[in-house]
Amino acid sequence: MQFQDQTLECQECGNEFVWDKSEQAYFAKKGFKEAPRRCRACRAKKKQEQKAEEAKEKEITCKICGKKSIITQDLAPDEETICFDCYIKKSPAA
Ligand SMILES: [Zn+2]
Ligand SMILES: [Zn+2]
């Protein structure tokens, strides 16, 4: 199968982007039948947003009190493994 670079319009930002041969080959390999609707930048952004959504809720074992807890806050990396209660205690209200 031969692939040709295609110029497509991103449905997200409206910019034109090139869907190149290697990407088409990748899509074909994955069995995707349709061309991408978004440019690389918008797809990367979407991916990040999805990741952020998933990252919003996760179960952790608190390293301070040992309780299992679902954290829904965007905590700093070194505070990811403490529960919300301990997080509040640790950060005095300003
Ligand atoms: Zn775009
Ligand atoms: Zn805790």
Task: Provide the fold topology.
Blueprint: E1 6-9, E2 16-19, H1 21-30, H2 40-56, E3 58-61, E4 68-71, H3 84-90
Antiparallel strand pairs: 1-2, 3-4
Bound molecules: zinc ion (2 copies).
Radius of gyration: 21 Å
Count of DSSP helices?
Answer: 3
Q: First CA to last CA: what distance?
A: 63 Å
Major sheet details: 2 strands, antiparallel
Residue share in helices? 25-40%
Q: Report the order of strands and helices.
A: EEHHEEH
The average pLDDT is 85
Count of individual beta strands = 4
Query: What fraction of residues sit in β-strands?
Result: 15-25%
Bound molecules: zinc ion
Note down, in words, how this protein is organized.
- This protein has 94 residues and is an alpha+beta fold.
- The protein has 2 domains: 6-53, no CATH class; 57-90, no CATH class.
- The chain contains 3 helices and 4 strands, in the order ββααββα.
- The chain has helices spanning 21-30, 40-56, 84-90, and strands at 6-9, 16-19, 58-61, 68-71.
- A hairpin with a 6-residue loop joins strand 1 and strand 2 (16-19).
- The mean pLDDT is 85.
- One zinc ion (ZN) binds next to helix 2.
- One zinc ion binds next to helix 3.
